[in-house]
């Protein structure tokens, strides 16, 4: 795998993620799957990038006073619990099944945003 493709994915996800608050995983995971990663490795690897991207975006939005800290921290509590559950569940899901589940979730979110 070419290292520069991974850097380009990171740049694209950073721009789009910071611009619209989109979770980096919604972009990064499908791109890593396209590059041949297994589902578990694509998701796990994505979190390394997401952590840094999220901190960078948080710093920019905090500077612009666009952060409601109380609500963000409450989201973090739920997100922490959900992340632990999701990581353990993913171990039992084959990559081909994961791709289908992920696609359905993304389509459902897109449809909801349009209507």
Describe, in plain words, how this protein is organized in 3D.
- The chain has one domain.
- The protein is built from five helices and no strands.
- α1 crosses α3 and α2 packs antiparallel against α3.
- The chain starts with a helix and ends with a helix.
Descriptors:
5 helices; single chain; 0% strand; 115 residues; mainly alpha
Number of strands: 0
Biggest β-sheet: count, sense, barrel?
Answer: none
Poorly predicted runs are none
Secondary structure class reads mainly alpha
Regarding quaternary structure, how should these chains be classified? Answer: single chain
How many structural domains can be distinguished in the coordinates? 1
Q: Determine the N-to-C terminus distance.
A: 39 Å
The residue-averaged pLDDT reads 87
% residues in beta strands: under 5%
Number of helices: 5
Described by the principal axes of the CA atoms, the overall outline is globular
Radius of gyration: 15 Å
Would you kindly provide a brief summary of this structure?
Helices cover 83% and strands 0% of the residues. The chain has 115 residues and is mostly helical. α1 (3-20) runs antiparallel to α2 (24-34).
Topology:
Blueprint: H1 3-20, H2 24-34, H3 39-63, H4 69-90, H5 95-114
């Amino acid at each position: 795998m070419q290292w520069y493709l991974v850097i380009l994915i990171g740049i694209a996800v950073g721009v789009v993620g910071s611009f619209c608050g989109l979770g980096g995983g919604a972009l990064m995971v499908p791109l890593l799957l396209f590059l041949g990663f297994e589902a578990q490795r694509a998701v796990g690897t994505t979190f390394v990038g997401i952590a840094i991207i999220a901190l960078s975006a948080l710093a920019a939005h905090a500077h612009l006073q666009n952060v409601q800290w109380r609500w963000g921290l409450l989201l973090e509590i739920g997100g922490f619990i959900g992340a632990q559950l999701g990581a353990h569940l993913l171990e039992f899901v084959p990559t081909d099944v994961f791709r289908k589940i992920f696609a359905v979730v993304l389509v459902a979110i897109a449809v909801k945003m349009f209507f």
